[in-house]
Amino acid sequence: MSVVSGYIDRVWAKGVSGWSPSPHVVVSVNGIPVGSTRCTGTRPDVQAAGLSPDGRVGFSFPLSLSDGDIVRVTTPQDKPLRHSPWLYVTRNGEDWLPVSLTACHPEYSEIADLSEHLSWKQFRPLFGQPGHISAVKFDSGEGPRVAHLGVSADSVSRLHHFHEQVLTPAGIASPTLYHKLNIGERQALIFDFFPGQPLDRHGPGWEAWLPTIKAELERLQRFGEQHREYLWQPGSRKLTLVARLIRHALGDALHWDRAHGERGFLFWLLRRLHRLPRVLSHGDLHRENVLVDAGSGHIALVDWDRWGYLPIGFDLARLMRGLPGDIAEQLAGGSQMQRFGVAGFTYLFQRLDRPGLVNSDEGEALRRRCRLLAERS
After folding, report:
1. Is the N or the C terminus of the chain less surrounded, counting Cβ atoms within 10 Å?
2. Within 10 Å of residue 6's Cβ, how many Cβ atoms?
3. Domain, as residue range, for 80
4. Per the database record, which ranges form the Aminoglycoside phosphotransferase domain (predicted)?
5. Is 283 within 8 Å of 301 (Cβ atoms)?
6. Does 299 share its domain with 352?
7. Is the model's pLDDT at 234 over the cut of 60?
8. Can you tell me the distance from the alpha carbon of 272 to that of 178, in angstroms, rounded to the nearest whole number?
9. Separation between Cα atoms, residue 290 and residue 9, nearest integer Å
């Protein structure tokens, strides 16, 4: 985990634009670098959000794009900006690309092998983190499906078990899992397609969907509590995001030049967060993993391979990452322990995303709030 690398705001036929705190960004199309551009444009919105001292972080780069082109923008250290990669599709493309494109497009080599196992004529690539094609939407003849690619054996076991033993019987809003395919040494999972957009793509006002999402998390937690002693959790080689976050904070607290006051607060906070009740959790509930169908009002939570019993409040803090601590706590609501979990994990996320937070008035206010909530809970 590291500080925010910036955002792609827009991709159109003749260019890409966005912002980054890096001096310059590198632009690639279909895996081939096409140039770099300096980040010096004025962005008052970024400055107002406290992500840049002077707001001179904007960029724009000219391109000439066709249907199916994939645009990537990275920092000089090869870290992708948020929303990178970006699939360019014209409005009249009806959301589909011809499957013949996989044979000649270097970005689609990961999904070309699917052609031998699926009867399909049209597809659309979907992306995971940190920017690889992790899934593909395809026309199955019986309706759209989604194939998740390159899934490891342990992830297949965890996901298959979780869908059968938890998501389906608990009625959690999530796409139906149909079956799995063996593709060489890899495996693919086939899911029903949910016709929604990631929460992050809905722009300002996405917080209006929080009550619906919270209701799903509460249903998941109740089911997890009722079946805790029977719910077998297969092992995973993936380190949980909670563990990664705490490891980073602990390492930072032990750094030789860390101020004594901040070191003491981090040790105190980590002990308190460790004592929070563990509830059945998604484990990676960022806003790209919440799909919203604005027309029907339905949602779907996806990418459950990091599920587990995690400290209460972590899922909501992950979901609301980027919001000020007081707003995140207010939107989270719930018990005092949940509010403390949200405030505490928000502080750890904010330290990563905003290096100046520690010495700011906002940082001090959030530390005070954490202590108050801990006393009450």
Report:
1. N
2. 28
3. 1-89
4. 151-329
5. no
6. yes
7. no
8. 41
9. 19
* Token pair in block for residue 110: 């990961």
CA distances from 71 to 84, 202, 240 (A): 7, 20, 30
Tens digits of per-residue pLDDT, 61-107?
999 999 899 999 999 999 999 889 999 988 765 678 888 888 888 88
Out of 75-79, 170-174, 180-184, 245-249, which region has the weakest mean confidence (pLDDT)? 180-184
Query: How is residue 308 written in tokens?
Result: 């587990």
Same domain, 250 and 343: yes
Burial of 229 (0-12, 13-18, 19+ CB in 10 A): exposed
Helices 336-353 & 241-253 angle (0-180, nearest 10): 60
CATH of the domain at 3: 2.60.40
Instruction: Determine the Cα–Cα distance for residues 117 and 95; give it in Å rounded to an integer.
Output: 22
Cα separations (Å) of 213 from 51, 227, 301, 335, 367?
27, 21, 8, 17, 27
Which comes out higher in pLDDT, residue 267 or 96? 267
Q: How many domains in the chain?
A: 3
- pLDDT at residue 236 above 90? no
Q: How many helices (H) and strands (E) in the chain? A: 11, 19
Is the predicted pLDDT of residue 1 greater than 50, yes or no?
no
Assess whether 167 and 237 both reside in one domain. Answer: no
Spatial contact of 172 and 219, defined as CB atoms under 8 Å apart: yes
Kindly state whether residues 110 and 252 are assigned to the same domain. no
Q: Which residues of 184-213 are buried (b: 16+ CB within 10 A; e: fewer)?
A: eeebbbbbebbebebbbebeeebeebbeeb
Read off φ and ψ for residue 152, nearest 5 degrees.
-70, 160
Residue that has been written with the tokens 């799909």 in this structure: 291
Query: DSSP letter at 77?
Result: T
User: Tokens 């086939």 map to which residue?
Assistant: 190
The CATH number covering residue 153 comes to 3.30.200
Phi, psi of 284 (to 5 degrees): -150, 50
Residue 123: which residues within 8 A CB-CB, separation 6 or more?
Answer: 96, 97, 99, 102, 111, 136, 137, 138, 139
Q: Which of 110, 230, 234 is nearest to 160 (CA)?
A: 234
Are the C-beta atoms of residues 220 and 226 closer than 8 Å to each other? no
